[in-house]
Design goal:
With 287 residues, the chain is of the alpha/beta class. The chain has eleven helices and twelve strands. It has two domains: 235 residues, Rossmann fold (3-Layer(aba) Sandwich), CATH 3.40.50.150; 37 residues, no CATH class. The longest helix has 15 residues. It is globular. Bound molecules: S-adenosylmethionine (SAM).
Amino acid sequence: MVGVLKRPMDMGEAFMTCGGFVRYFGTNEPVIHIAKVMEGRQPRRVLACCGGGDQALTFLGLAKEHPEVYAFDMNPAQLFVLACKARLLEEGQVKTFSPSFDRISRSNLGRIRALPQDVRRISRLVNIPARKAVRVSADFAGKFGFEVDSGMYDYCQKNVYWANDKRFIMKIRASLAGLKAIHADALSVADWFAREYLDIIYVSDIPLHNAIPFYLERLRALVDRLSPGGLVIGNAEDQQELDRCPSIIEVMRCYKELFGLLEFRQEGQIVALMKTGAKKQKRDKQG
Ligand SMILES: C[S@@+](CC[C@H](N)C(=O)[O-])C[C@H]1O[C@@H](n2cnc3c(N)ncnc32)[C@H](O)[C@@H]1O
């Protein structure tokens, strides 16, 4: 069976062709929790929202031998960031993983840009439910600052639990040939794969904006690319607290019967839903 229907980019190609305006460099997602919700499983084929690329690299380290990890993003600058991080690993960042946006942008002049965070702005956060502005300490703002006008989010690398784990880094290095990039929107990325091809789909906290029937249909197509027993994983941060549009994982969770998904595990804000249903081969035999 041909499982990949369009041609994803390898890291060399992503490095040569991608670029633009970077919004995410590090991650604010606890990737250790992604590893925990998968405990006992070693996927081979993963589709992961790219962002700063740390989640895709984590999946590469957690996967079986000869994995296929497809990082997708609608912003090609994010794919460039991932390609640069992959290069750093390939070229010898073995003992510790400590990429720096400044170094990467300086050594690839004109390829990527970002607006710096305006740290002063995040000394005040708005508590939406209470409709109040809350003053936060400079220390908190420096560490966790999020509210920035189109600035780049560069969360500290502490979130990448394997940043000093030589063995894990070596495992990622050994699997880099299986890391691919896809420039696509979450609602169209299903078209790149055959049915039941993937073991894991990681949707981060991508917002859905509207749960209109067409979007739900596209999400159903995405789940259709997952093998039975496979997982959709996402970040359902501040689910109840924020007055904002729902994320893909929240919508899938809310309509789980419609998508043929079951609640599987949750670690902190990371939620995993499992696809139900018989194996395709069995159904094919019966049919
Ligand atoms: C959802 S954001 C969240 C970042 C995350 N909290 C982290 O720490 O990496 C991650 C990426 O999703 C991408 N993204 C957002 N909406 C998307 C969509 N509909 N399709 C594809 N990528 C999308 C953004 O370009 C961004 O790079």
